[in-house]
Amino acid sequence: MNFFNRLLTAATLGAGLATAGIAVPQSLAADQFIVVQSTTSTQNSGLLDAILPQFSETSGIEVRVVAVGTGQALKNAANGDGDVLLVHAKPAEEKFIADGNGVERFDVMYNDFVIVGPEADPAGIKGMNDAKAALTKIAESKASFASRGDDSGTHKKEKALWQMDGITPTDASGSWYRETGSGMGATLNVAAGMDAYTITDRATWLAFENKANLKVLTEGDDNLFNQYGVILVNPEKHPNVKTEAGQAFIDWLTGENGQKAIAAYKVGGEQLFFPNAQSSASN
Predict the structure, then answer these.
(1) How far apart are CA 206 and CA 202, in angstroms?
(2) pLDDT at 280
(3) 3-state secondary structure (DSSP) of residue 2
(4) What totals of helices (H) and strands (E) does the chain contain, helices first?
(5) What is the dihedral of CA 262, 96, 198, 200, to 10 degrees?
(6) For residues 170 and 162, what is the distance between their CA atoms, to the nearest angstrom?
(7) pLDDT at 181
(8) Other CB atoms closer than 10 Å to residue 279's CB: what's the count?
(9) Closest by alpha carbon to 235, among 31, 83, 24, 37?
(10) Which residues contact 264 (CB under 8 A, 6 or more apart)?
(11) Distance between CA 32 and CA 148 in Å, rounded?
(12) Given CB 3.0 to 4.6 Å as the disulfide criterion, which of 31, 151, 173, 231 pairs with 102?
């Protein structure tokens, strides 16, 4: 790209981000894309497909998403494979920061987890709002349960709930407890095929089309709260990180326009994610 074209690119990018209320240095002209390590839930729910074009249109920055489980996303980002991390396992995110892998964490949005299972409900958990007690009944009845088993944010939540009960379900691995090692959509497919229980984030559940005989059976427990956070990968540790472009995305996501875009995304008339950021730009 010659000097004249670089100037045109820089001017176009700066004007777009100014429209979005984001101040961007001219150096961003050479950084036209960022890599975001994120979760299968943000992808499977359709959220990212809905909101990322809005950011790209105003900024000129393409967002390339690697959608994996939260655990893998954290590992990838810790290795410097990405510019921004968008996941949902706050204790693991805080450790990521403490280990020097990220700059600062910001809340972005939340929803909740639900326990779904076959309409016949052999464990008798329908209508319960105590997730721990519901999992105890599933274990006691040895009813089929499909676990993601992939160290994702959902899997981390599931493991924490079992631990609250003092239950080690992996002792029954291969019998009533099945570990898929897969994303949320694939695990829901397994649960539907087996008439099994599973834990899912509500957004993926609402967007999931192959529900078969599965129904939401347990919900409304504070322990099922599901917070998402965003972090810039530490450029001091990984010089390849596109700091300005990555921060521009974080500022948009936690700012007025990004938060409105998140709130506006619905499936079947239902809002899937609820924005709760305090703007990173104002901080």
Answers:
(1) 6
(2) 55
(3) coil
(4) 11, 12
(5) 0
(6) 10
(7) 93
(8) 17
(9) 83
(10) none
(11) 35
(12) 231
Query: In which band, very low, low, confident or very high, does the pLDDT at 23 lie, cut at 50, 70 and 90?
Result: very low
Strands (E), 125-194: 145-147, 177-179
Give CA separation, 36 vs 74, 80, 81, 232, in Å. 11, 11, 9, 9
Q: Which residue carries 């898929």 as its tokens?
A: 180
pLDDT digits (tens, 9 = 90+) for 62-88: 999 999 989 999 999 999 999 999 999
Average pLDDT, the chain: 89
Tokens of 273: 């994610």
pLDDT digits (tens, 9 = 90+) for 161-199: 999 989 999 999 999 999 999 989 999 999 999 999 999
Q: At what angle do helices 70-78 and 153-165 cross, to 10 degrees?
A: 120
Q: Can you read off the two tokens belonging to residue 178? A: 């099945």
Q: What is the mean pLDDT of residues 273-280?
A: 85
pTM value? 0.82
Question: Alpha-carbon distance 181 to 45, whole Å?
Answer: 19
Q: Rounded mean pLDDT of 258-268?
A: 96
Total residues belonging to the chain: 283
Q: In this structure, what token pair is assigned to residue 217? A: 């059976």
